[in-house]
From TrEMBL:
<feature type="compositionally biased region" description="Polar residues">
    <location>
        <begin position="174"/>
        <end position="183"/>
    </location>
</feature>
<dbReference type="Pfam" id="PF04542">
    <property type="entry name" value="Sigma70_r2"/>
</dbReference>
<dbReference type="InterPro" id="IPR036388">
    <property type="entry name" value="WH-like_DNA-bd_sf"/>
</dbReference>
<feature type="domain" description="RNA polymerase sigma factor 70 region 4 type 2">
    <location>
        <begin position="113"/>
        <end position="160"/>
    </location>
</feature>
<keyword id="KW-0805">Transcription regulation</keyword>
<dbReference type="InterPro" id="IPR014325">
    <property type="entry name" value="RNA_pol_sigma-E_actinobac"/>
</dbReference>
<keyword id="KW-0804">Transcription</keyword>
<dbReference type="InterPro" id="IPR013324">
    <property type="entry name" value="RNA_pol_sigma_r3/r4-like"/>
</dbReference>
<dbReference type="InterPro" id="IPR007627">
    <property type="entry name" value="RNA_pol_sigma70_r2"/>
</dbReference>
<feature type="domain" description="RNA polymerase sigma-70 region 2">
    <location>
        <begin position="18"/>
        <end position="82"/>
    </location>
</feature>
<dbReference type="InterPro" id="IPR014284">
    <property type="entry name" value="RNA_pol_sigma-70_dom"/>
</dbReference>
<dbReference type="InterPro" id="IPR013325">
    <property type="entry name" value="RNA_pol_sigma_r2"/>
</dbReference>
<dbReference type="Pfam" id="PF08281">
    <property type="entry name" value="Sigma70_r4_2"/>
</dbReference>
<keyword id="KW-0731">Sigma factor</keyword>
<dbReference type="InterPro" id="IPR013249">
    <property type="entry name" value="RNA_pol_sigma70_r4_t2"/>
</dbReference>
<keyword id="KW-0238">DNA-binding</keyword>
<comment type="similarity">
    <text>Belongs to the sigma-70 factor family. ECF subfamily.</text>
</comment>
């Protein structure tokens, strides 16, 4: 291994060690709350990033988030043609990270709500609100226009609000009590 390869190998390892928890949280939300699918999704993206590492310019985290969103959408398309697997019950989920995000990620209602959205809309909501990216950053990560981000955000939030209404279409599916014991 040459010195140059050793340098970028170390940089990539540092990136994985320090950014994997946040990226795993993003993958978890993009995978519709399935922790195994989230780990597989992140592993696939990191495996594809490693040989490309020297050529990744700008923000490697933005690159990884975009790759997660695209890989999740592609996986969703591929899996939609197969028999569905049964996900773990929400109470069996381990938090992806410690911190204020934990309450959001482990809330029983969030994962099913996100899973009910189309992949691109889900990616916009996750990147915008859970990863706290600006509209411009989300557009860059997903390779679309800011107007698309705005419309997908608006439609996604409207769908989630509708599902949360006591008389909304998702009310029957979302009857569990979220973390903290309040409805």
């Amino acid at each position: 291994m040459t010195g140059k390869n050793k340098d970028w190998d170390t940089e990539f390892t540092d990136f994985v060690v320090h950014r994997s928890p946040a990226l795993l949280r993003t993958a978890y939300l993009l995978a519709g709350g399935d922790p195994e699918a989230a780990r597989d999704l992140l592993q696939d993206v990191l495996e594809r990033m490693y040989p490309r590492w020297p050529r990744i310019t700008g923000s490697p985290e933005a690159y990884a988030r975009g790759a997660l969103a695209n890989t999740a959408a592609n996986r969703w398309r591929r899996l939609s043609r197969r028999v569905r697997e049964t996900p773990l019950a929400p109470g069996q989920l381990a938090p992806a990270v410690d911190g204020p995000e934990e309450a959001v990620v482990t809330a029983d209602q969030i994962a099913p709500l996100l899973a009910s959205l189309p992949p691109r809309m889900r990616a916009v909501i996750v990147l915008r609100f859970f990863d706290d990216l600006s509209e411009r950053q989300v557009a860059e990560v997903l390779g679309c226009g800011i107007g698309t981000v705005k419309s997908q955000t608006s439609r996604g939030l409207a769908r989630m609000r509708e599902a949360l209404r006591p008389d909304g279409p998702g009310a029957a599916r979302l009857t569990t009590t979220p973390a903290g014991g309040q409805r």
